[in-house]
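Weekly modeling sync, notes
Attendees: S.R. (lead), two postdocs, one rotation student

Agenda item 3: backlog of single-chain predictions. S.R. asked that every request posted to the team notebook include the full sequence so nobody has to chase files. The rotation student volunteered to paste the first one in as an example of the format we agreed on. Action items at the bottom.

Example entry:
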Amino acid sequence: MTNPLKQYREQIGLSRAELARRSRAAYMTLTTLENGFQLGISGKTAQRLSPVLGVPAEQIIQSYADYRESLAVEPEAA
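Predicted structure, as returned to the notebook:
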């Protein structure tokens, strides 16, 4: 499964820096989310991203829950 934030961001053609600027979310937060160092997203961050991405905050949060679950069940590559 693809990282949800990266997928949403790329669908609307924004760079990470532009998404951070428009949403007023910290660039480093977006980086840690997209690179998988943080597997959950806060409600506050989802609320900031929602209007820019055109995706309801609840959907962003659920996408991250699904993403985290998919990572937990995927077998490790040999």
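Discussion: group reviewed the output briefly. The chain has five helices and no strands.
Action items: rotation student to repeat for the remaining queue; S.R. to check formatting next week.
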